[in-house]
Amino acid sequence: MPTYTPPLRDMQFVMHEVLKVSDEFKALPPHAEVDADTINAVLEEGGKFAAEVAFPLNISGDTEGCKLDKSTHEVTTPQGFKEAYAKYVEGGWAALSCDPAYGGQGLPFVVNQCFYEMMNSANQAWTMYPGLSHGAYECLHAHGTEEQKKIYLPKLTSGEWTGTMCLTEPHCGTDLGLLRTKAEPQADGTYKITGAKIFISAGEHDMTSNIVHLVLARLPDAPVGSKGISLFVVPKFKVNADGSLGERNAIYCGGLEHKMGIHGNATAQIVIDGATGTMVGQPNKGLAAMFVMMNAARLGVGNQSLGLTEVAYQNALAYAKDRIQMRSLSGTKAKDKPADPIIVHPDVRKMLLTAKAYAEGGRALQCFCALLLDKELSHPDEKVRKESGEMLALLTPIVKAFITDNGYEAATMCQQVFGGHGYIKEWGMEQYVRDARINMIYEGTNTIQSLDLLGRKILGNNGATLKKFGKLVGQLVEEEGVNEKMAEFINPIAYLGDQMTKFTTEIGFRGMQNPDEVGAAAVDYLRVAGHLVFGYFFARMAQVALREIAAGNTDPFYQAKLQTARFYFAKLFPETATLMRTARAGSKVLMDTDLALA
Amino acid sequence: MPTYTPPLRDMQFVMHEVLKVSDEFKALPPHAEVDADTINAVLEEGGKFAAEVAFPLNISGDTEGCKLDKSTHEVTTPQGFKEAYAKYVEGGWAALSCDPAYGGQGLPFVVNQCFYEMMNSANQAWTMYPGLSHGAYECLHAHGTEEQKKIYLPKLTSGEWTGTMCLTEPHCGTDLGLLRTKAEPQADGTYKITGAKIFISAGEHDMTSNIVHLVLARLPDAPVGSKGISLFVVPKFKVNADGSLGERNAIYCGGLEHKMGIHGNATAQIVIDGATGTMVGQPNKGLAAMFVMMNAARLGVGNQSLGLTEVAYQNALAYAKDRIQMRSLSGTKAKDKPADPIIVHPDVRKMLLTAKAYAEGGRALQCFCALLLDKELSHPDEKVRKESGEMLALLTPIVKAFITDNGYEAATMCQQVFGGHGYIKEWGMEQYVRDARINMIYEGTNTIQSLDLLGRKILGNNGATLKKFGKLVGQLVEEEGVNEKMAEFINPIAYLGDQMTKFTTEIGFRGMQNPDEVGAAAVDYLRVAGHLVFGYFFARMAQVALREIAAGNTDPFYQAKLQTARFYFAKLFPETATLMRTARAGSKVLMDTDLALA
Q1: Residue ranges of the Acyl-CoA dehydrogenase/oxidase C-terminal domain (chains A, B) (predicted)?
Q2: Is A422 touching B (CB cutoff 8 A)?
Q3: Which of A272, A287, A302 is the last residue of a domain?
Q4: In a designed cystine with A489, which of A217, A513, A542, B87 is the match (CB 3.0 to 4.6 A)?
């Protein structure tokens, strides 16, 4: 059976020593008083909840799965899930970074980010139930009417109700412009909604008394395509004026999917049979409103894979120290044992360090993004808010795609460390691989992320935001360019930054002549960008570590960080050499293949 | 539900047009009469068996799994498995390339190779039952006493009985030197065997009246470690002198593993409680005898992933043509539809072509290896036999590791083409990923394969065999060096061949000073070698295609082959740029990480 220890020390390092979040919070009125001690105390408790309440339900939840009673349309979640949720609500965890106006604790997002990383390590399938609520909360908070906010936000904040995103239909996932669910205006200002949705995560369950579905649908006179989509809030139970639950709404679960993983989460087919809903935001502007939710969800999906990477790593590391098999190539290490622990083998170390480096790089990036979100929402200076939002928009597809691709690779490698035992359910490793797999698919496939990055976020504004990230890299290069000890961390990112600038211009020109050139390069480009970002954060982490060591700090944490950074630059970062080459290979070898793909 | 069409045309291309197997067979007395028509007719029938009998049981077998009755120790395989096996035996498929002296059909291994590729596409879990028998057959054929051969080979040839390999124990997989199962000599020349084995594929089932277990165990006076291991044949039912079944032997299934995939195959814990066995080969030379089986099994595992790659590709291709979603970046393609089929998107093509190129490269390599095996066993010239065996030994770890790593990547990409539907069981794609995963682990993990390749097969003989493969590449380069049309296929392998030669010398020197340098480079090295080999075969396939086109052949197959080869060299082969770099990065960044891995 796997184990899990919350990585509090590394979170503290990233937040307090690298990003210095408390200094940043001083400029943000709602968080000006939030200091390191507060954050650490919250996360320590959060880590306990993750490790002690959610984690023990992970394998059993996978084995049991969810059950639908077709006669009542009610779903039973795996044993213990409901009770764990009650503890979650009782502990106030749902409210962590919600608006105090609706009962929230108002803590910065970066705290919620770290809490959710631990929850995802502990139990991704369980964590998706409250996780989806956050998206619904954000969306209603940004676009709901005063009445909608009054009805729904306090309950979503407390966790008394959960929320969902009902987007996908059988014939459309990526291409929401094709959706068919109808919304007919009623005399009382509500809408009568009819349609069929699929793949609705946490779409039905027995944890809460109500579920707040946010549903994309079309008005009768809506333009075709994505410009004719509106957003509606459709609760499972209608809500009376006094906030009490009214009659059952005609929105129910028609089936549950049998999936590769995340068995503990109910992936529901949702039948909407003339249900009553109210509109969120403006008519035909539903996609824009939904994107508030989607962007939060994309960061959340990256965080799911970050969590899985960390827990897979911890267990593979423990196994590699414990399992004895063969002798070290360079001579016996454990003379008192019939064989050496497998951690003596270089490739076992490589697999472990890959997962560790991806976890630590991902953690730095995710915290940086959460801090940008805090600034976007709370900084008094509009320019800072705007620039923070733009930088976050640039980094969001990288978080979603790069961290989830890495997470699948890392989970696969950690499983490999276990040899045959990694393939057996009871060890828990194969579940991490199966769970991690969905993160590359949902909330926009990783290919879609790459097109969002290169097409919209980079070429769409002539590389302006990318240049701002490049400036951060440039500043670090300038700061540390003469520091010999930093050369091994600085030179690679300086070189790659230059390369990317050139290639971005090149692909911009090519794309104007043939847009397929952008599509052909995008996935490779995103991975290069991901390495530039990870490289930047590893360099910053190394910078802090070197300074601490120079100042006489003997905490082995800093030497460990340098070792991981060195590994990263020597063994993972060089992937960019191939990626630049294949990105440059162009679209012809892909598109002139009608006969090969006949 | 997935579909499967046997890739007979591509098999014929590889066998008859690229490798010209019938010409080679003329030199092999047992196969001198085997012509293309015979091979094609057998494979056409074999393809029907795979597609019509084994394939329909793939998803149901995965869903049902195997069931153990703990009171009788009997295992029930999924519905239909037993009946399909009866048809397999009835059709004579078990005997395809077995020795006519024991009732076999004596066809070349290359035919069996292609037949088994199709069986693996159809149903890997089912195919493992007869597949494991082949290893037991080969081992007894090479090392059994006359009596053992007389008793066991006819039944294994007909398929009336199946065989297993009982190697792994709970505390030892890779490191068989640690094994503890005991074999005590008895007065009648038999051995009394006691111990516990795990992970025994096809270890118990209801398909045949007897199961022939080949068991590694230690004699009482055996030296410690791998030099003290002997091999025994331990049948489930003892066999009377007249060949009829005697009493139940004390070897039984104590449990079945719950696994990530290959649910239809019974992965058994085997309890051996004073069972009666006879020795195969010499005392304490069991590992050598077992390696006959292991080498066959390693080629077989590569073939499993080749089969999965092909079937995953076929289904992803069909889906990509059928599923409409978004418009092409370069303008609407399907004007009559509300969206374009997703095959218009460059990255969807990239995922499809990756799987196709890995399937076609793998098929060429596997057939080449099967032909080497035929030559090793049947060529009248001892020198040819020896050299064929050496070349096969060099290529075996590449087949095992490169094709299985590629297969997992390909299955994952083909699943990705399906978007969210790829994560749902009914589409069948997630099963291919789960099944493909084991192939990177069993029969020696892919790390072990890389050490076998670099440490033993290459540095172990100072690169002598590698040079022979290099000579094949050199010949092709010389033949086609002045052919402009071949330059795009020839230049990359000529360059990489040079690079590898240099790096092999370099790593040989470094390894003498520090053996961990070999361990640190081996996995990357194997993938480079894999690309050199695939590159060589793609160049040879392109050579044939270009010649056919030049001769006026208008079969679109040849243009399709050139398109796939171009894609391969442009988008997959460049991985070697990174791999050479990371292989050269050395062992220090892996081994000086005790603090990071604390």
Answers
A1: 284-451
A2: yes
A3: A287
A4: A542
